[in-house]
Target: alpha,alpha-trehalose-phosphate synthase (UDP-forming)
Amino acid sequence: GETESSKKIKLRVLVVSNRLPLSPVRGGPDSWSFKKSAGGLVSALRGIKDVEAMWIAWAGLNVPDSLGQSTLKDALAEQGCVPIFLDEELVKLYYAGFCNNIIWPLFHYLVLPQNDQLMVAHSFGSQFEAYKRVNQMFSDAVSKYYREGDVVWCHDYHLMLLPKFLKEANSKMAVGWFLHIPFPSVDIYRTVPFGPEILRSILAADLIGFHTYDHMTHFLCACNDILGLERTPEGVQDKGRLTRVAVFPIGIESDRFKQTLELPSVKEHINKLIQRFGGRKVMLGVDRLDMIKGIPQKILAFETFLQDNPSWIDRVVLVQIAVPTRTDVPEYQKLTSKVHEIVGRINGRFGTITAVPIHHLDRSVDFNELCALYAVADVALVTSLRDGMNLVSYEFVACQDSKKGVLILSEFTGAAESLEAGALLVNPWNTTQVASSIKKALIMPTDEREKMHMCNYAYVTTHTSQKWAETFLRALTDTAMKAQSIIRQ
Ligand code: GDG
Model:
């Protein structure tokens, strides 16, 4: 007979996000292969029993011909993915424009330079129209694949209008929305063009999730101040309808990092790196090259440290992996040149004939190499000006169980809330403080390092990405079930 567990119905989750969990690579006119992304969400969902995920997202590349589009669709369908195709104009206005040039900086408390801002402001309307159209396209795609009993999990700032469109299409759909970046304080949020409309659309969801208590509070204040809606312990109340709002801090799949460090090839690589660094202390930075990551601030603080502590010259190196992103946006091109200029100047100033203090890489490294770097580093340096959570800090901790290195962490990351006791928290704008924390980290006594590491390690290995996804999905199914029973009454 059937066992209890096989009778259990699998929950089907439609995951909707801007990008797919894999990148299509064109092999020929109608052949495709895929580069899998190691994103936390993918592994989180894969790890949950009794859940089947289907992904709906922008294809991420322009496939102009319908033949190419249909072969790609078929190939992706086998991977549980549904691509949405956007033409170049839409990508420009929706993605590069509204998402990356307006929402991304504002939600991270960054203001655009005055002149650029005026130029962008001129076309805010058309960018928002494109944003709306794309959100509507996502909604249509979800409706096409939705079956009764599914839950829909929308992700991030690209899809803030989606909950409303989905509920308009089918009021019975269980809709959750999670924000991966900070939700800014209400004074900043007020400046977001079309802000009230965006708030109302998000509120159409059954469940809204944030990384931290602060982000959640900012959202609740915005609903109250801007829309006049009442805050309850559960969330936001609007004419008898409750939207549940809660905190779900994301984590990493820590086991995957630990297992990778056990691979013979990775162990070999670690030994090679140790030899290469020749006894010097290693400080590590791993960031997408984005203004929110505070890379210039980090490098300048390292310069101040070397300047104030000349005995450390040639005894410490800073390895900075700066993964290129959004390379078509002018602001990001300017940032790249700025970082290159600073790195060049500092290496010229403190370098010797045989060694330079900063190893700056303008590219990503593969996962195994990343783990090896995390493992050999003595200090990780995270100086984000704002960051929703910051997973790099968690990944460093997961790889440091033998070394027990020190984490220097910006107080403006979500992670600062969870790793408060185990990290040296800094204000990245305070170069003097960051420089002195670098010194403190480099000379920290072993027992103190171990104590701090144990705090971090206990947190990171228990608050995993799988737990995060499970908790969110459980809350979503509960909330949706309650909402349905209220409607039926
Ligand atoms: C957003 C929010 C929030 C980086 N370089 C390489 C590489 N990476 C991987 C890291 C890490 C991921 O990229 C970066 O994640 P973060 O969380 O640090 O930052 P964002 O990309 O800005 O992510 C952030 C996150 O969403 C989740 O909600 O925490 O606040 O901004 O996993 O390992 N991976 C490989 N090579 C690299 O060179 N293989």
Summary: The chain is about 50% helix and 20% strand. Residues 38, 180-181, 250, 286, 288, 321, 323, 364-367, 370, 387-392, 395 surround GDP-alpha-D-glucose (CB under 6 Å).
